[in-house]
Design brief:
- With 118 residues, the chain is mostly beta strands.
- The chain is built from no helices and 11 strands.
- The strands form 2 sheets. Strands 2, 4, 5, 6, 9, 10 and 11 form a 7-stranded mixed beta sheet that branches.
């Protein structure tokens, strides 16, 4: 059974940092493209960051230079380090994986809430 479990969310003040984790089980993570999405209150889910390879990582314009997606060579965990957080970063953050060769095979985590407020 495939599971993606996000953790690390919380309530922080503007300018602070958080590091989200996504622990995957039931799959070999290297066989998947990994991404973080977020769903702000009342808005659609949007792509935040995508890890294709170490040298090919894509970010939404709104988070470039502040967020970093990473995936250690060993292990089945993906991270999203978020610095200089802003109130507009408030959202539920979801981990997503899509199989590299069979893109129709996708899995989602249940999400973790990030709230940025003073």
């Amino acid at each position: 059974q495939v599971q993606l479990v996000e953790s690390g969310g919380g309530l922080v003040q503007p300018g602070e940092s958080l590091k989200l984790s996504c622990a995957a089980s039931g799959i070999v993570l290297s066989e998947y493209i990994v991404a973080w999405y977020r769903e702000p209150p009342g808005n659609q889910r949007e792509l935040v960051a995508e890890y294709i390879t170490y040298d090919e990582r894509n970010y939404a314009d709104s988070v470039k230079g502040r967020f970093t997606i990473s995936k250690p060579l060993a292990g089945n965990t993906v991270y999203l380090e978020m610095n200089h957080l802003k109130p507009e970063d408030t959202a539920v953050y979801f981990c997503n994986v899509a199989h590299r060769e069979l893109a129709a095979i996708k899995y989602w985590g249940r999400g973790t809430q990030v709230t940025v407020s003073s």
